Amino acid sequence: MMMENLNLRHLRAVLAILRLGSVSAAAEAVSISQPAITQGLCKLETQLGIALFSRMPEGMQPTEAAALLAPRIACALDHVGSPRVTMAQMRALLAVAEGGSYARASALTGLSQPSLHRALADLGIALRRTLVERRGKGIGFTESGRRMIRAFRLARAELLAGLAEVETLKGREVGKIAIGAMPLSRARVLPAAVAAFHAQFPDVRIVITEGAFADLIEPLRDGDLDLVIGALREPIPGSDVEQQALFLDRPAIIGRSDHPLADRVPTLAELAAYPWIVSPQGTPLHGRWREMFEQAGLPLPTVPIECGSVIAIRQLLVTSDFLTMLSPDQVAVELSTQWLRKIVDAPAGLTRTIGVVTRTGWRPTLAQAAFLEQLRLASR
């Protein structure tokens, strides 16, 4: 079912029934009439295609589906915050945020622009704060608006995970895994894990977003990505994310196949005499490159180009005397075809940890947990 069809008041009622054991007690707790809760629960169970409660003389007994869904509902509603917020308002704010304008949001959702305006105005009244403001001919979001966008995205992620878990209980593996892929992960580990996972769960959609760490960390925090794979950061970039190591990568010095240093083992001083292409400052690989020369007491070589694109680096290397530091896995094809050559390994100890970054407290679905296991297997 579509998440947009859910009613947040009905979801609050489900938690109240779980907590209190009866519809009548739940009706009093959430200030909804008993017939309205009964009707809402029946509608929700019809939408889900599965019962959430067994109606017993001693009260409402939760089914396995309710036990799976309840923690997701609780977390989603905690992100939403106010009981006055509706799903229509939540949907409108996310649509305008992701579309960048009312016109684009209307095209994305099929909702009229007046409906979107009205929903956001009602949301601002419900939350007692200004969320959207005019900026010239366009719109922008206030600080409160940006906080609510992130909260609603995280709520959406929880609800979608809950719906996927219910479908799993019904014997259907569905849902989506949204992966942020930094450069090294795209070489071998991620493709191997995705191929093995798809064979196991062919109906689960996998969406891979490529980028540098700085491009991926905020979508992860927003709930738009489930996990990010690549070189881990030291120190960890905040208490709201967690890192899990997969393997250690030892980079190598790479140049063109007929580079002047290709037929011998060069010293660091000889390497320093050539111009370099290195990854941008602040990345783990850039830090290892600096360490290589600083630990030897040598001045840093000339770096005319900073670049994180392996494709661009490859093209620059094959037509010049530039050197770079990369994992051999990142240019495995180029090495096998002898476009490029490993000049020498980086000194021992100059490794970087490759792993997975997730939100703190993130609870993977069965399919997401299975994908993580495939990542671990591929990393071995």
UniProtKB/TrEMBL annotation:
Family designation: Belongs to the LysR transcriptional regulatory family.
Keywords, in A-Z order: DNA-binding, Signal, Transcription, Transcription regulation
Species classification: Bacteria, Pseudomonadati, Pseudomonadota, Alphaproteobacteria, Sphingomonadales
UniProt name for this protein: Regulatory helix-turn-helix LysR family protein
SUPFAM superfamilies: Periplasmic binding protein-like II, Winged helix' DNA-binding domain
Transferase found in the keyword field: no
Stretch forming the signal peptide: 1-25
Protein's organism: Blastomonas natatoria
InterPro entries assigned: LysR_HTH_N, LysR_subst-bd, WH-like_DNA-bd_sf, WH_DNA-bd_sf
Residue ranges of every copy of the HTH lysR-type domain listed in the record: 6-63, 85-142
Gene Ontology MF annotations: DNA-binding transcription factor activity; transcription cis-regulatory region binding
Pfam families noted in UniProt: HTH_1, LysR_substrate
